Amino acid sequence: MNSEYDVAGKTAVVTGAASGIGLGIARALARAGMSLVMADVEPAALDGAVDQLRSDGYRAVGVLTDVSDRLQVEALAEAALAEFGAVHVVANNAGVGASGPVEDMSIEEWKWIIDVNLWGVIHGVRTFLPILKRQDEGHITATSSVAGLAGGPMLGAYHTAKHGVVGLMDSVRAELALLGSPVKASVLCPGPVATNVVRSERNRPDDVDRHLVGEPEKRFWSRLTSTLAAGMAPEAVGELVADAVRLERFWILTEPEQHISSVEQRLAEIKADHLERG
Ligand SMILES: NC(=O)c1ccc[n+]([C@@H]2O[C@H](COP(=O)([O-])OP(=O)(O)OC[C@H]3O[C@@H](n4cnc5c(N)ncnc54)[C@H](O)[C@@H]3O)[C@@H](O)[C@H]2O)c1
Asked: What is the whole-number distance in angstroms between the Cα of residue 71 and the centre of ligand 1?
């Protein structure tokens, strides 16, 4: 039987906590009795999110952080330790979405997507994992996506980053197991969730110009926007993460049957290419 991790009275750091899934995770961990350090790049939204938690009676502080900047992530850890004395759960969740055929997206656009979605998690892991390991306790999670489990058109940079997050967290899990560490890792792979991710353009840095968007991409984005609007509530995703932390589960899937079948499809293709050809 798996053991359970009791987080009540402990401290969590959540990035991208001002909106959507990050706010859902922060609220779920607060409900589980944790103090929250909420990090985000958007100051007004962050203040609003922190106020929301505090007015519901939870302990929360906000730390303005751009996760693509290593020094800012290190400053986030220092701020969390200064405020609460320890960090036990870390959710590397901040992310941005942008579409574009792989060869049309500019190098700056590729860099933006990889910097936030993948380097943001790398910085989080490199900064917080040593803290958790030193105290021999804790859980580190990161938000990937179904886009981290299978490929697809028009989101090549995003798929690349999200596959990287799955690979990274699987490596973290393997290294913790090798050491026999009680620290646990997990990876969240959501399907559609009704959040502001389709408005990620609000976070696009001024110096990252947008490529010329053609009709197929416009149609793709409009379909994606409708699919996400009808997606799962971020609060429900937050509860899945809180459950995974408590139950020490690695994979966190929002619609397991559907996502497992995408992975099985990939496996079937590998088998078809290698085992079934004469
Ligand atoms: N919504 C979905 O359907 C869906 C599906 C799969 C994965 N995801 C992933 O979930 C995570 C959360 O996204 P969401 O859907 O809640 O979108 P969201 O836009 O509602 O929230 C993302 C948050 O990250 C913040 N952020 C953006 N760039 C940042 C940076 N450089 N540093 C710090 N914070 C930054 C934003 O300000 C925002 O508050 C992302 O990693 C996203 O890729 C979302």
From this structure: 20
Residue 25 has a pLDDT of: 99
What are the boundaries of each domain within the chain? 11-274
- CA–CA gap between residue 74 and residue 275 (Å, rounded): 47
Judge if pTM exceeds 0.90: yes
CA distances from 198 to 52, 59, 61, 134 (A): 23, 30, 26, 38
What single-letter DSSP state applies at residue 245?
H
Number of residues that this document lists for the chain: 278
For the Cβ of 254 lying below 6 angstroms from any atom of ligand 1, the answer is no
- Ligand 1 pocket residue status of 21, Cβ below 6 Å: yes
Asked whether 21 and 242 are in contact (CB, 8 A), the reply is no
pLDDT tens track for 25-42? 999 999 999 999 999 999
Q: Which residues pair with 143 in a beta bridge?
A: 188
CA distances 100 to 49, 110, 156, 213, Å, are 31, 10, 7, 7
Q: Which atom of ligand 1 is nearest to the CA of 116?
A: 31
The CATH code that applies to domain 11-274 is: 3.40.50.720
Whether 18 lines ligand 1, by a CB cut-off of 6 Å, is yes
Q: Report whether 148 contacts 163 (CB < 8 A).
A: yes
Q: Do the Cβ atoms of 54 and 32 come closer than 8 Å?
A: no
Would residue 158 show up in a list of annotated catalytic residues for this protein? yes
